[in-house]
Amino acid sequence: MSSFLVSVILVMSLESIGATTRGKSANSDRARGNKLVHALLDEIVAQKFEDDVSPVMGPETGEVTGNRTLFDDVDDYNRWYSTPPKKRDGTALTEFDGWATYVGVYYGKPDNLARLTFRPTEVKKVFVWVAHNGIWLYWGETVVSKGWVRE
Predict the structure, then answer these.
(1) Nearest 5°: phi and psi at 136?
(2) Residue range 57-67, pLDDT digits in tens
């Protein structure tokens, strides 16, 4: 009977250790996902609201090069997808193997920032999604307006 009790306690201890390890891994992934989301959002909001010459949604002709070095306005990032995630110059972030990033830029309604529209407005909503091992887990968003001044 005592060996059975010891066995049960041992199994419960091992299960507890496994759950703790999984929890630490999830917290680490969450922190890494957040890092990717916020780094990309910070890069995007540092750009102009729209292109001076051709204010179209998405990258202008000649800006699609496989990296983001020629992206010079917020909506150039629309539909940007990268796996693994990359620095602006196209260098892969090798510590994020198995991860992916996707950006969506949409026009927002100035009188209701929770709503999106296909018509050009003076507001753009930027969403960044991050996946790990094929599962979209993390996201962040921000709003940029035409009158917003970068510092």
Answers:
(1) -75, 115
(2) 888 888 887 78
